[in-house]
Design brief:
Order of helices and strands: HEEEHEE
Oligomer: single chain
Number of helices: 2
Strand order of the largest sheet: 1-2-3-4-5
Largest sheet: 5 strands, mixed
């Protein structure tokens, strides 16, 4: 997948979050474990969002690419983020997944899964 395709999906999800009252705190946050695409908050939650973007012609749903291994890496990265941001200690962390399908640079669908997996994840898939 071209980097531009991934960026199209991330922009669509960031726009959706903003339109739904979330404040975007960080984009493409990196740690030694991996990257979190979008970190946002609302009144209650500190939301760590993994965005998967795929061409609409593919048969598999984009969100299916968030494997148990990927979930563990996201959790580890989020825990490091929380250690460096004490101002968010009163927010409940939540892990969301967005699956975006595109045709070129046109967004066809965005499927958003709030609370797709959690800190108590035993490594199972969320589907």
């Amino acid at each position: 997948m071209a980097a531009q395709t991934g960026q199209v999906g991330e922009e669509a999800v960031a726009r959706w979050l903003w339109e739904n009252g979330y404040v975007i705190l960080d984009r493409n946050y990196h740690s030694r474990y991996g990257e979190i695409d979008i970190i946002a908050r609302d009144e209650t939650y500190l939301v760590f969002v993994e965005v998967k973007t795929r061409d609409a012609a593919r048969k598999a749903e984009p969100q299916e690419a968030v494997t148990a291994s990927k979930q563990r890496k996201l959790i580890q990265t989020a825990l490091l983020y929380l250690q460096t941001k004490p101002e968010f200690q009163n927010f409940q962390p939540r892990f969301d997944v967005a699956g975006v399908t595109v045709a070129g640079t046109d967004v066809k669908t965005v499927r958003y899964f709030a609370g797709a997996f959690g800190l108590d994840c035993e490594g199972g898939e969320f589907f």
